[in-house]
Amino acid sequence: MEKQQPGSSDVGGKCQTDKLSEEIVLAKSGLVNSISTLTLLDGRNSEEIGDSVYANETNDVSLTIVKTPVSQLRKKLLVLDVNGLLADIIYRSPKNYKADAYIAGRAIFKRPFCDDFLRFCFEKFEVGIWSSRNRRKLERVVDFLMGDMKQKLLFCWDSSYCTTTRFKTLGNRYKPLVFKELRKLWRKSDPNLPWEKGYYNESNTLLIDDSPYKALLNPLGTAIFPHPFKFDMDDDSLGVGGELRVYLERLALAENVQKFLELNPFGQIAITESSHDWGFYSRVIDTCVH
Prior knowledge:
Layout: E1 15-18, E2 23-26, E3 37-42, E4 47-55, E5 61-64, H1 70-73, E6 77-80, E7 87-90, E8 101-103, E9 106-110, H2 114-124, E10 126-130, H3 135-146, E11 156-157, E12 163-168, E13 176-179, H4 183-186, E14 205-208, E15 223-224, H5 243-253, H6 257-263, H7 278-287
Parallel strand pairs: 6-10, 6-14, 10-11, 14-15
Antiparallel strand pairs: 1-2, 2-5, 3-4, 4-5, 7-9, 8-9, 12-13
């Protein structure tokens, strides 16, 4: 997954490359005294990389190619939940409402603008899915929601990758309480993950989940918690100009995920020691085996 650093190229047939200094010198009289910026394109992501260009005291122009660190070239990793974010999945379709699909006895209501939102995500980020559903059900839902776009996913994780506990959620006494530990991605706990260990970390990874408790084992500033989508909502959050879409457009340009989230809170508040239910969650955390 490491991006290839941009190489050097001839300019107007007048370039001479010094392999040690990686400078390209263009000697040509009559040119302007200075050129401000030379733009190179990373062929893999078509991301523009500005290279400084300097003019000497004569009419000769010296082009210095400044290598951009790989850490600045990579796309951030976006880890998407499914239910509550891309769709509303419920036990049965209510009267006067027709679901978009029925899978494994569940009614699937696809969120408005979901397709366009996914195309946007794949353009601006590296994308993976992480759901607390079992694999068989998850694969069928992802097939329906994403179609051929699922081939672009870096991974599609189900409940087997979640950290389990012996507790049930506060909102549903039958629903197991599980965590999504981003360290499993950062440490490449699954050898099939298509990057080197440490390639992703706190600075370039974002989990999006409508359940704040699922991120309790992660560092602060690595997840946002949009309010859950419900099938009967008039919702445009994923569309152009929508709340979540605009937020991610800004995040894609940010240097550091944690710093951006600190300055730009979004959605539900993260669970912390000051939260009303911290006593319960602290007991859950204490029982987790790392």
